Amino acid sequence: MGSESNNTPQPNVSTEFLQLDREFILSLFEDRESEYMDLQAEVSRLTEQVAKLVKELDKSKSVQAEIQRELDLWRQGTKEIQTVEDRPKCTEPGLPTPQQLQESESAEGPVVQTTSRRQRRQQQYQKQQQQKVQPQQQQTASITSEA
């Protein structure tokens, strides 16, 4: 074990191996603990992601059920055309809100407005086409007058 003269025990070979084994086991334990913490963080992240996906799925199912119900009513012939007041409060981005639609509808109704908008677009298109055709006609006229 140790010498009696200097009162410090000298480690024997088996004690050194035990110390190395202990250090090795502690390092393995620390590695496993670190891996465990990483796995816990990954599990938490995936759990949150699953919760979000479940919410989206539930929302999708409710929308699908609403669409199916309206489709069934339409097939039965009991579904009426929605008025501005009947339209849902949530609208898709870029679409006018029901209040905006109500404000834009005149006594003649939106069909007349659509028709006038269509006529304005047609007139603008015809003007553009005429502006394109006029320079071509002038070029043709100048070529024929030169000949």
Automatic annotation (TrEMBL):
Superkingdom of source: Eukaryota
Record protein name field: Uncharacterized protein
Keyword line: Coiled coil
Biased composition (Low complexity): 122-139
Renumbered residue ranges of the record's region Disordered: 79-147
Parts forming coiled coils: 29-63
Lineage of producing organism: Eukaryota, Metazoa, Ecdysozoa, Arthropoda, Hexapoda
